[in-house]
Automatic annotation (TrEMBL):
It comes from Brevibacillus fortis. Its EC number is 5.1.1.-. Binds 1 Mg(2+) ion per subunit. It is an enzyme of class 5 (isomerase). Residues 141-240 form the Mandelate racemase/muconate lactonizing enzyme C-terminal domain. SUPFAM superfamilies: Enolase C-terminal domain-like, Enolase N-terminal domain-like. Substrate binds at R24, T135, K160, S296, I298, D321, D323. Its cofactor is Mg(2+). Coiled coil: none annotated. PANTHER family: O-SUCCINYLBENZOATE SYNTHASE, O-SUCCINYLBENZOATE SYNTHASE-RELATED. Pfam families: MR_MLE_C (PF13378), MR_MLE_N (PF02746). Belongs to the mandelate racemase/muconate lactonizing enzyme family. This is Dipeptide epimerase.
Length: 364
């Protein structure tokens, strides 16, 4: 099972509604698809989302990393010795985690196809369906309340609310308006995307606790590098705190875990460099008794299917943030995970379960 060819293609797909966080506003999916072909004719698919403000990876850097650095080192390797292949991939260059993730996903697609198993079963097969949350972009309180009510009507009972863009008072008004719109039947998670400082985070979280707003967890309240500040927030409030941008690598996860700087960890394949390293992060967290969520950037159903396969395979992964494909105007992917409202079902086909990628040919 020799790697014979590696190809890339840029894709761009408009969103139904702009996606706004404390870090950026996104109007369309911008990513790079990766296609790996082996000498036996098998094809594996991967995808890298360009998220400069989080991973530092651009469309151009992803393409260059895959084609000019990773490709020459991987061509000719035998995927039946896949430990060697993944070691080669991750030692090929420093950083460039999104590019590594795209190649990693395609490799796992091929390996699990060769095994004749859906990828989630190949990785452990703990469950065969998931329930995703839905993200409410940061806007005016009124618009966010209306969006939250719409998502509730569509069947989503866990909402991830983007905050941290303006001042704390505005964020609290946003949460109050959303709570008024959806009542107490919906779980609310907040994602500040590093938008607060330590004092602001502690004061606002305590205020929301006193107001009884019922926040399930708060994600990355402070700057990614500020582990001391993250720990201060975690130790000062009752609401569980989740590390996201603070954790890219297993080594960073270990720092968070050893210092008890967060109550949960959000694993994303684009941060971890793919499934190979994501598994190590989850295993470390499990040993420390810390549950994980698996999320995504703005990605197509191809990359999200890979993340969902990983999430479904492990007991310690208890929360799922896989709404990105539902935000796209078009799909272009046949196969992979399927959505029934908030419920996601894993495919029965081997590998990722991707049957065709029409977007590769530019048919959208």
């Amino acid at each position: 099972m020799i790697i014979q060819a590696i190809e890339v293609k840029r894709i761009s797909v408009p969103l139904k509604k702009p996606f706004k966080t404390a870090l950026r506003t996104v109007h369309s999916l911008e990513s790079v698809l990766v296609k790996i072909t082996c000498d036996n004719g098998m094809v594996g698919w991967g995808e890298a989302s360009a998220t400069v403000v989080i991973t530092g990876d651009s469309i151009e850097s992803i393409e260059s990393a895959v084609m000019n650095t990773m490709r020459p080192q991987l061509i000719g390797l035998n995927l039946l010795a896949y430990e060697r292949v993944f070691q080669t991939l991750h030692q090929s260059m420093v950083g460039n985690t999104s590019a590594k993730a795209a190649v990693d996903i395609a490799l796992y697609d091929l390996i699990s196809q060769r095994a004749g198993m859906p990828l989630y079963q190949f990785l452990g097969g703990y469950r065969d369906q998931l329930e995703t949350d839905y993200t409410v972009s940061v806007n005016s309180p009124k618009e966010m309340g209306e969006d939250a009510a719409l998502y509730l009507k569509q069947g989503f009972n866990v909402l991830k609310i983007k905050v941290g863009k303006d001042n704390i008072e505005d964020d609290i008004l946003r949460i109050q308006e959303i709570r008024k719109s959806v009542g107490n039947q919906v779980k609310i998670r907040l994602d500040a995307n590093q938008g607060w400082n330590v004092k602001e985070a502690v004061q606002s979280i305590r205020k929301m606790e006193d107001m009884g707003l019922g926040i399930e967890l708060i994600e990355q309240p402070v700057k990614a590098h500020d582990l001391e500040g993250l720990k201060r927030v975690t130790d000062s409030v009752d609401t569980p705190i989740m590390a996201d941008e603070s954790v890219f690598s297993p080594a960073q996860a270990l720092q968070v875990l050893q210092n008890r700087a967060a109550d949960l960890i959000n694993i994303k394949l684009m941060k971890a460099g793919g499934i190979y390293k994501a598994q190590l992060i989850n295993q470390l967290a499990e040993e420390y008794g810390i549950p994980c969520m698996v999320g995504s950037m703005i990605e197509s159903r191809l990359a999200v299917s890979a993340a969902a396969h990983f999430a479904a395979s492990k007991k310690n992964i208890t929360r799922y943030d896989f709404d990105a494909p539902l935000m796209l105007l078009h799909d272009g992917i046949e196969g992979g995970v399927t959505y029934e409202g908030r419920l996601m079902r894993m495919p029965e086909e081997s590998g990722l379960g991707i049957r065709s990628v029409s977007i590769w040919e530019g048919e959208i």
